[in-house]
Amino acid sequence: MKLMRVTDPDDVLKIIEENFSPLDSETILLEKAGGYTLAADINAPENIPDFNRSTVDGYALMARDTFGAGEGIPAMLECTGEVLMGHSAPSISPGQCCLVHTGGMLPEEADAVIMIEDTEVAGAMVQCFNQVAPGENVIQKGEDLKKGDPALTKGSQLRAPEIGLLASLGITAVEVHRRPRVGFFSTGDELVDYSRPELKPGQIRDSNTPALLYLAGQAGAEAQYGGILPDQFAAFLKESKAMLERVDLLVFSGGSSVGTRDYTARTMQELGKPGLLVEGISIQPGKPTLLANCGGKPVLGLPGHPVSALNIFKIFGGATINRLSGRRENIFKPAVKATLARNISSRSGRTDYVRVRLEKAAGEIKAVPVFGRSGMLRTLAEADGLLVIPPEKEGLTSGEIVEVEPWE
Fold first, then answer.
1. Domain range for residue 150?
2. 363 lies in a domain?
3. Do residues 175 and 25 make contact, with C-beta atoms less than 8 angstroms apart?
4. Burial track 344-354 (b if 16+ CB lie within 10 A, e otherwise)
5. pTM of the model
């Protein structure tokens, strides 16, 4: 039996970055761009805002006219009118002010706004019971973005805030990397479609595929399912070649364990050069994972056990989709800080991903390990997320503060 040569998880992520490139770009309408990644920098075509605007309801004025004002000695200013929303502001002179609403345009001569609650109207005069400084309660022209400033950079993922920013600049279409197409196969004669109502002795429903399709969609890919491949190499290779022509990433679920009926590694070598890049990862669960570069396209071989398959695809399948999508490296993913509820042992030199359930008691969040074999789906359903034990540690101690990456 050939010994498995394992690769450190961080090195696998580097291999993905070095071997694969972002997909080609396309131009799409802004309202359809959510979740895509920018393929080019965007500079502001105009100032945002394009005029000095008020951040409060109040009176636009020259700040120096309020200097020294207070409760006992208010500054008296003549009100010349009101700035209507969406209209230009009238001019004012020293000793004058005008009513302005939140977001409204300031007169060119005004350099501050006094809040309406700090004033009192007496006929045509406004009494100011507080002094304001130049620039107070004002967003200056170009303060958000100046014309020509970088608005968004290549590699930015377009979320709601980014789309809103681009809309404020009048940008109606953007150049983005197209969504990766991911093709999935399940492997093994023991598998049947998950919709099969009754099982024969020795058969297992394919539970991995629906979950993997969901994870691929979450990561921003377009997923398609090719079915269950039989343990016959000729059929295995033929179906794989046909699928690889249609997709940007090919994924096998199962068939990556060391054994005489393992066709995945052999298929990867046949699909294109340079072939196998990773023959195992020093990670638990998920050690028997394969990664190949087949003619410039990534091919990933997942272990068949559900916990391992979902764990590996979430980490390394997600990293591959990020790379193909053109997203920046090291995308921050918020984690939940929690207190570990019990000791966890780990083998030094191997990265362990531990399933945990999050519980809140007495104002404290606790991470409770959910133990079970890698083929037990129930443990996945009971877990709220994963915590990582790095290879240099031989476990974690109860009471330690840990970071848990939630399942989405």
1. 25-48+143-177
2. yes
3. yes
4. bebeeebbbbb
5. 0.81
